[in-house]
Specification:
The protein is of the alpha+beta class and about 150 residues long. Helices cover about 20% and strands about 35% of the residues. It is built from three helices and six strands; from the N terminus they run βααβββββα. Strands 1, 2, 3, 4, 5 and 6 form a six-stranded antiparallel sheet that branches. Helix 1 (about 25-45) crosses helix 2 (about 45-55).
């Protein structure tokens, strides 16, 4: 596994496909969410405790661009990188890579997800600074090894 992305590996199942036999588009978005959740579980568990308390991670925008079809039993690597880290919002990119048995790789889709950190009761949530534990956990996954700006020193 590369150090510049967080990886979620997925074997496509029949439940991921439509009547034609290719992967139904909504599943790409589900896999983005799954990748993000596993990142929190494995790399930032203290943030999960914060979510149980008061932190809310609102998905503001999500998209996915498709380059090639995939079908049942294809092996996928969903690779999440941090593309932007602001004070209250962050953005991830996701590369969906089909991995062949011989080790060859094909980029089949690329997605993005913009997230806002919020706190407060459901009827009165307000923007909140990105927790320091989350920012620290994300540092190794900055796209292209860039220094991210927008955070106070």
């Amino acid at each position: 596994m590369s150090e510049d992305y967080f990886e979620y590996q997925h074997t496509v199942g029949f439940e991921d496909t439509n009547l034609v036999g290719n992967v139904y588009y909504v599943n790409y978005l589900r896999w983005q969410g799954r990748c993000r959740e596993l990142f929190l579980k494995r790399k930032a568990p203290e943030v999960l405790a914060d979510i149980q308390d008061d932190l809310k991670l609102f998905t503001l925008k999500v998209d996915c661009e498709f380059f090639a079809e995939i079908t049942a039993f294809d092996e996928l690597s969903i690779r999440m990188r941090l593309s932007e880290l602001g004070q209250t919002q962050l953005e991830f990119t996701f590369d969906y890579v089909k991995v062949a048995g011989d080790g060859g790789e094909t980029l089949v889709a690329r997605g993005r997800q913009r997230i806002a950190c919020m706190r407060g009761p459901n009827t009165a949530t307000v923007p909140s600074l990105i927790p320091e534990a989350l920012a620290r956990a994300l540092e190794p996954y900055a796209a292209n090894g860039r220094q991210l700006t927008g955070r106070p020193a």
